[in-house]
Write a structure and sequence with these properties.
Elements: H1 19-24, E1 33-38, E2 41-46, H2 53-66, E3 70-74, E4 79-82, H3 91-94, H4 99-109, E5 113-120, E6 123-131, H5 136-151
Antiparallel strand pairs: 1-2, 3-4, 3-6, 5-6
Length: 155
Amino acid sequence: MSQGSIKKIDELGRIVIPRDIRKSLSIKTNDSLEISIKDNSINICKNVCVKNYIDLVKKYADVFSKCSIKILVTNREDIIYNNTNINNIDVKNMINLSLYELNSLKNSICSNCDIRPIIIDSNPEGIVIIQESICNEIVGELFNCLITNELDITC
């Protein structure tokens, strides 16, 4: 088990999640967290709203793929769908980049593509890259809208 921060519980049973942890997980004010017990530990998980994110991405990506659209989609850590020729991207370092920063990396990742973050409940949850489509930006925006509209709910 990794060494973590030691925090005291206040009189109301609250603890402060350290800033570096909140930042690395994009936890913001009013985000919902799931708190449970696992073995003899307290488990705190973010993304209660997006538990079916991977299944939903695969469903829509399959539809896009059937239309001969090359698409790569990630979650916060891994590539979860890829029918492009893009193989090596560092998802963990890209996930918190702005659209401007992602676009500045675009030429080093692929030519003739659209790249954009998937934002759910104000948090970056993944990245979508559309490659070699006649309308990369429109297709990328459409895919992004489908995912975010279905999952962007307040918990």
